[in-house]
Each structure stands twice: as structure tokens, then as C-alpha cells.
Automatic annotation (TrEMBL):
Pfam family for this entry, one: Phage_base_V
Organism listed in the record: Moraxella bovis
InterPro entries (UniProt xref): Gp5/Vgr_OB, T6SS_Rhs_Vgr_dom, T6SS_RhsGE_Vgr_subset, T6SS_Vgr_RhsGE, Vgr_OB-fold_dom_sf
Ranges of residues in domain Putative type VI secretion system Rhs element associated Vgr: 555-662
Residue ranges annotated for the Gp5/Type VI secretion system Vgr protein OB-fold domain, each copy included: 487-532
Family statement drawn from the similarity comment of this UniProt entry: Belongs to the VgrG protein family.
Domain of life assignment: Bacteria
Protein name per Swiss-Prot or TrEMBL: Uncharacterized protein conserved in bacteria
Length: 674
């Protein structure tokens, strides 16, 4: 029996006699900081009777079908009749699909001595994960060979997809909200402060892609701590939170001299190769915030650890290599922009120096520190962090079931412990494309806005489904002004013209369908680009019959009346209609027909112009007024030219003078009055 390797799970299949079918054979896999580990566990289904592989027809050396169901028949006790029975091997026909999604732990005892300094190596190598795959590989000697795939519990997060808006929450709060939906262990080990974000969207991405993107954008890393019974997700932002290897042998790794002969089971570090890379020397970030349009938002930093001699032309060029990024409103202000810039420079610094290593190491762990000794370059003999590893643990003697030894083939990547702990590879942000949403407002309000003319909308994909155009609003008192309590997005509205207290404004109202676009395709930066009609919001007039009508019609706030400016483009019957429903006050110009909503054009009422109201009418002009019936076809001449009136008055004066002369000649003034 193998006492050096153990499988820990209450879900593993057992025979009726209580003997586990599955036994550890080998393990290989990869694991890294900011990555999902994957281990391939090779297990064997063992013969508990010690029969040869093909001892009995159909049995093939495994537990019989009858034994599995309680009628245990040892092959040596089988009757002649039973010898003719075609048995089915349970162990070689295990259905392991029931193990999918169940936890499994692995522990491998260490009990060795270092071949060079005779140090005792004790403890356990542990790995734990969720079984996410299984396969039967082959039959070998007295065993059926199976493969189990182990992944972290966060692998479950990759099988989701969601759209969700998070408002006025810090990044740790958002991560906590997502992870709280899963019954597995995790914990924060954070040093930095994280301000609340106005708006963060999980947009067409899995829970895993969403939280790892947030962590990548804000300089947060993650890894897993293993025990034989569990594995815990650790979320951290500083190297000081990383632990050293608990095993003294792995806490200080000595680089062995090359070409030394070692026992196959020995633990030792064989190669450690530092690598330096060319990277940019400077980082520059720029941003824009609409609330502070005149405030320049820039952050500049120099990559620490990039050594250049500016007096040498080729190194002077390297010294001026700069990475410039434009963020288009993604940062709340200069402080947040500077923090992001520091994270970027830290990531570039990681690229400048790393190390690859190889050895026969079973117990090396990701996200743990160790001290290197014995390297010929003294500067390398310092503290390092294991960032990623690739491991293979295999038995030395496959047929030795009592005193089995295992050998390991392990490669890993390490960074100096003085380097900041930040994600080195940015996670892509899903591109957002043009879509529509519904305008919303608190109950009882039709127009809901702020000092910038922003409005609130509800995306069609946002859960729960929008049942009404208004949101329930139970706020009272001062809380009525707290727009953040309305659980929906708050957007700027694009306009054809926007100036300093001039331009065009027409705020979309509750229930309207609006077009949503995104600055730079960023799902965290939506804005209202226009409006659309639908069966709940039909066009101004009945179409296509009234297709010649165009114009603007508003609606009374909280009522049904309106103001409107309508133009009728019917051939040879043009009309302009300006109306306020209050007291039916209107101006009609041109070919006058009655216009009603939504019917459109009605009966003919005449030509020319009409100014009418059911209330009072006033015409007042301080410098004079001209009202005349003298027509000017085609509207020629100056508007204040009153030549026709002057000519008429002159004619009247001439006639008056002529009559006066005739009266004088007739001595009319000498005639007695009657």
C-alpha cells in the first residue's frame, strides 16, 4: 500500500469492502499568480485480490461485478459453473462523471535528506481543487488508469456570463459582491485604499473575467493557498502580504553546481537563470473629466530599475522611450491617475528583470518567497517570489506499492521580492457597441435631470427586468436630492448644439427609448446619442400618410397639452404652424389647414396668415407700426418702405388743394350760412 501519497475526498468511489478504488499515481500541472491553476492527476483503480491482469475471463484482475454488489466471490473459490461466468470489472468501468464539480485534495509526504548537506526534508506537498474533468486513459498491469483534472473553484466563475451595473462602490466591494455568490473560501489582504467608483459595468463577460479585469486595472493580484482539505483565493495588492515557504528547505534554496549526480528522488535546485529585458523608461497618462474641462489631468513617472547612460547615444534613446496612454474620463482625478501610472510603471519594472529556474522540487509554491544562495552572481543571492510554476511529480518505481518514491520535474518563474506586486498582463475590456435603453425617473416624475442635463436610463439587459417606466422611489426629505439611490445609470445627453447657456436642449423623458453609445467603446462610459420611436412612443403624426409634415412638438409636464412648430411641405400648399395649446394661441402661415395630432392635416381654412387666441391679443411697437393692405408680390422692397401709403396721402393732399382752389374761386367763403 502506498503511504506517501494520499487522496482526500468523501466522494471517491469505494468497493463494498470499503477499499478505495482510486490511488495516486502522478501529478502534473501549471499554477501562477493571477492565473487559474490546472493539475492533471493520474489515478489507478487497484485490484484488491492480487489477481493477475487477465487471471479470469472477463475479470481482468479487478473486483468482480458480483463483489461490487455484495456477493463477494474470491476467484480461487469460484465453482466450475462460476468460472464460465463472464464477469464485468467494476474498477475498470468506473463512471467518474459523478465526481465532476466535487473537491479533491492531494497530500504527498516528504521524508528525505538533502544529498549535499544532509538536511532533513519533511512535511507535505498539498494541492486541492475542484474536479473539472475526467477520462479513462488505459489499462496497465493490474490497474485501470484514469485522469482527473483539478481546477480552482474560481473556474466555476468562467462558466457564467452576465451584464450588471455597479455604482458608488469601491473595487473590493464589487469583488466581494461577486464572490459572495459562491460558497468557497476567499479573503482580502489589501494595503492600499480604494475610492468608490461612480460606475462600473460587467458587460457581456463572465464573473471571472469581470473581477480579474477590475483587479488588473487597479493593481490587485490573486493566488491560491492549498491545504489537503481546501484551497483559498487570496486577493492582495502588496508583496508584504506574501508568505515565505514554511518548509525550511524551500525557504532557502541553494543552487547546486552543474553536472552533479543526484538520486532520482532528491530535492534540489538545478538551474537559476536571471533574465533582463528592454522596456520603456517612462510612462505618461492623460485624462479628461467633463466636470473640470480646463483642468489638465496628467501623470508622469520614470521606470525604476532601468539603468541607462544618457551620454551613450543608444542608451540615451532608451532613456526617452515613453509609454503614453489616453484614458478618456476613466479616472476620477489626478490622484487616481497617478496611482494608475505607478501600477503601470511597476508592471514595466517586472518586465525588466525576472528569472527562470528548474529543479527537482516537489514542495515549491506559487506566491511564496524564498532566499536564493549559491548563485555565482552575488546580486542574485537575495529574496525572490515564485510567480509561476510548471510541475510534474511521477513515481520512480511504478510497481513498488509499499515504499514508493516520487521524483519531481519543476520549472518556475521568479521575480525579485523588491519588485511591487502588480498584474503584469492587462485583462481586455469587452467592447461596447451602440444599443438602446429606456429613460427612467422616480415615481411621479416625467423629467429627471441634474445641473448638467444628465438623465437616468435603464438598459434592457440590466437585471431585474424593467416592468414600468418609473422606478420605485421611497426617499423622503433631503434624500430626495440623492440621485445615487436610484439604481440605474446616469448619463450625459448629446446635443446638436451646446454652449455656455446657449444651444439646443430637449431632455428625453421617462419611458422614451434612447440610443446609447460609448466613448471609446468603453462600457463604463455610456452617453445618450439620440432617441427612437417604438409602439409606446409613436411618431408625431400618422405615417406614412402624413409623411410631408415635419417639426417639433413638446408635451405639457404632467399633462396632455403641447407646444408645437409644424411645417407642411405639401406641393403648392406649404404651411407653417406655430401653436400653444394654452388658449389655442397660434400663428398659421401659407396654405392654412387645420393640423391635429396624430391625425395631421384637416380641413382647408384659407390662405395667407392667421394670428389667433382665445385670450387677449396685444400688438405694441415703441417706434411705430405699419399695417397696410397694399400688397407687394414676392415680398420685394424694404420692410419699412411705406411708399404706397405716402403716394396715397400725396394724392389726397393734391385733391384737397384742388378742391380748396375751386372753393376760393367760387367765393364759397362769402356765401351766407344756412
Amino acid at each position: 500500500m502506498n503511504h506517501r501519497a494520499h487522496l482526500h475526498s468523501v466522494y471517491l468511489p469505494k468497493s463494498v469492502s470499503g477499499t478505495p478504488y482510486l490511488w495516486f499515481d502522478s501529478l502534473q500541472g501549471v499554477e501562477s499568480i493571477n492565473g487559474l491553476f490546472e493539475y492533471k492527476l493520474i489515478v489507478k483503480a487497484k485490484d484488491e485480490h492480487g489477481n493477475p491482469a487477465h487471471g479470469i475471463e472477463g475479470l481482468e484482475g479487478y473486483v468482480s461485478f458480483e463483489a461490487y454488489h455484495g456477493s463477494i466471490i474470491h476467484p480461487k473459490e469460484a465453482t466450475p459453473h462460476q468460472d464460465t461466468i463472464s464477469y464485468q470489472s467494476v474498477a475498470s468501468h468506473l463512471d467518474l462523471t459523478a465526481l465532476i464539480g466535487t473537491p479533491l485534495g492531494i497530500s504527498l509526504d516528504l521524508n528525505d535528506k538533502h544529498p549535499i548537506d544532509d538536511r532533513t526534508i519533511t512535511g507535505q506537498v498539498t494541492r486541492h481543487g475542484i474536479i473539472t474533468g475526467c477520462a479513462k486513459l488505459t489499462t496497465h498491469n493490474r490497474h485501470a488508469v484514469y485522469e482527473l483534472t483539478l481546477s480552482p473553484w474560481t473556474y466555476l466563475l468562467t462558466k457564467t456570463n452576465n451584464y450588471h451595473i455597479h455604482q458608488h462602490k469601491s473595487i473590493p466591494q464589487i469583488i466581494e459582491e461577486v464572490l459572495s455568490c459562491y460558497p468557497y473560501p476567499w479573503q482580502f489582504e489589501l494595503t492600499h485604499d480604494y475610492p468608490k467608483q461612480d460606475y462600473q459595468t460587467q458587460y457581456d463577460e463572465s464573473d471571472h473575467a469581470f473581477i480579474t479585469r477590475l483587479m488588473s486595472e487597479h493593481g490587485i493580484s490573486f493566488y491560491f493557498e492549498h491545504t489537503k482539505d481546501n484551497h483559498t483565493l487570496i486577493i492582495t495588492d502588496h508583496v508584504s502580504h506574501l508568505k515565505r515557504h514554511a518548509n525550511p528547505f524551500y525557504d532557502t534554496l541553494t543552487l547546486n553546481l552543474p553536472n552533479q549526480r543526484m538520486p532520482e528522488y532528491a530535492e534540489y535546485l538545478e538551474h537559476f537563470t536571471p533574465k533582463s529585458r528592454l522596456t520603456c523608461a517612462q510612462s505618461l497618462l492623460s485624462d479628461y473629466q467633463f466636470k473640470a474641462p480646463n483642468e489638465p489631468l496628467m501623470a508622469h513617472d520614470t521606470i525604476k530599475g532601468v539603468q541607462t547612460d544618457t551620454h551613450k547615444p543608444h542608451q540615451a534613446l532608451i532613456h526617452h522611450l515613453q509609454r503614453y496612454e489616453w484614458h478618456q474620463g476613466r479616472r476620477a482625478g489626478g490622484d487616481e491617475l497617478a496611482t494608475k501610472n505607478e501600477q503601470l510603471t511597476a508592471a514595466y519594472r517586472h518586465q525588466s528583470l525576472s528569472a527562470t529556474a528548474h529543479g527537482r522540487l516537489k514542495g515549491i509554491q506559487v506566491a511564496h518567497l524564498f532566499t536564493l544562495t549559491g548563485h555565482p552572481h552575488q546580486s542574485m543571492n537575495t529574496d525572490w517570489v515564485v510567480y509561476a510554476l510548471q510541475m510534474s511529480i511521477k513515481p520512480i518505481d511504478e510497481d513498488n506499492n509499499t515504499h514508493q518514491y516520487y521524483t519531481a520535474d519543476t520549472s518556475f518563474t521568479a521575480y525579485p521580492a523588491t519588485h511591487p506586486l502588480v498584474p503584469t498582463t492587462p485583462c481586455p475590456r469587452p467592447p461596447a457597441r451602440t444599443q438602446t435603453a429606456t429613460v427612467v425617473a422616480p415615481e411621479g416624475e416625467e423629467i429627471h435631470t441634474d445641473q448638467y442635463g444628465r438623465i437616468k436610463v435603464k438598459f434592457h439587459w440590466d437585471k431585474p427586468t424593467l416592468a414600468q417606466r418609473h422606478l420605485v422611489d421611497n426617499r423622503t426629505g433631503d434624500d430626495k436630492d440623492d440621485l445615487s439611490q436610484i439604481n440605474t445609470c446616469y448619463l450625459r445627453v448629446a446635443s446638436t448644439w451646446a454652449g455656455d447657456y446657449y444651444g439646443h436642449i430637449a431632455l428625453p423623458r421617462a419611458g422614451q427609448e434612447v440610443i446609447i453609445d460609448f466613448f471609446g467603446g468603453n462600457p463604463d462610459m455610456p452617453y445618450v446619442a439620440g432617441s427612437l420611436t417604438n409602439p409606446n412612443n409613436m411618431p408625431l403624426y400618422t405615417l406614412p400618410h402624413e409623411k410631408v409634415l415635419s417639426g417639433i412638438r413638446s408635451k405639457e409636464y404632467g399633462g396632455d397639452k403641447s407646444n408645437q412648430l409644424i411645417m407642411d411641405d405639401t406641393k403648392d400648399k406649404l404651411q407653417t404652424h406655430l401653436k400653444s395649446d394654452h388658449l389655442h394661441t397660434e400663428i398659421n402661415l401659407g396654405h392654412i389647414r387645420r393640423l391635429t395630432t396624430p391625425q395631421g392635416r384637416g380641413e382647408y381654412r384659407g390662405e395667407g396668415f392667421e394670428v389667433r387666441t382665445d385670450g387677449h391679443g396685444v400688438i405694441r411697437a415703441d417706434k411705430g407700426m405699419v399695417i397696410t393692405t397694399h400688397g407687394r408680390q414676392g415680398a420685394v422692397g424694404h420692410v419699412k418702405d411705406v411708399g404706397e401709403a405716402v403716394a396715397r396721402l400725396q394724392t389726397m393732399i393734391d385733391q384737397h388743394s384742388l378742391l380748396l382752389e375751386q372753393a376760393v374761386e367760387a367765393l364759397c367763403e362769402l356765401r351766407p350760412h344756412r
